[in-house]
Design goal:
It contains five helices and 13 strands. It is an alpha+beta fold. The strands form three sheets. A nine-stranded mixed β-sheet has the order 6-13-1-2-3-12-11-10-7, covered by helices on one side. It has a two-stranded antiparallel sheet with strand order 4-5. A two-stranded antiparallel sheet has the order 8-9.
Amino acid sequence: MMVKRLLIAAAALIYLGFLSVVGAAYFIGLKQASSRPAKDQGQAIADKDLPKVERNVQQLEKRMSGLLPKGQYIVIDTAENRLYVKNGNQVVRTAVVSCGSGVVLEEPGGKKRSWVFDTPRGEFSVKSKITNPYWVKPDWAFIEEGEAIPKGLEDRIESGTLGDYALGFGEGYFIHGTLYTRLLGRNVTHGCVRVGDEDLKAVFKAVPLGAKIYIY
């Protein structure tokens, strides 16, 4: 029974370590473990059981390491507004970014449309890589500015807003450049992740199509 408890504890610690590698921010399990009564801690185990425990821990470590993404990938901390390019456990580059503001915009005139400007959380992948991207402004961009929504596509296209590079990760969300570098480090965007020019260029070159993106 004692050996089983130790194996469960070891598995939990290894799993929590893996989550920290991919940037997960949910430390609930860790907090619960650290708040257990003292009577559940500091137990003993016989010498003869140690080799078995060590073997099982090594097997668990091997299985967990196989879950890591292959090659370079991106981790984004939306609370701290930090982007990390990682290769396995190693941080290759860190960038100060701007993530979603969380602001809610409602369409005026009694219409039912509304938008929440949050950066989505979860596991994604790089679906597109674009140089010199154009922004096709959605309806909310005109509503926010108090302008009429245009009917033609040509009236929605805006150049220069997204910087020199953009990495799409689905549903219209991108990691892209910004004209407002003074706001980096703050939650001010409409959901995309804004990055400074130098960091954006490095990130664009570092990660290939299909690379994993973990956002929390």
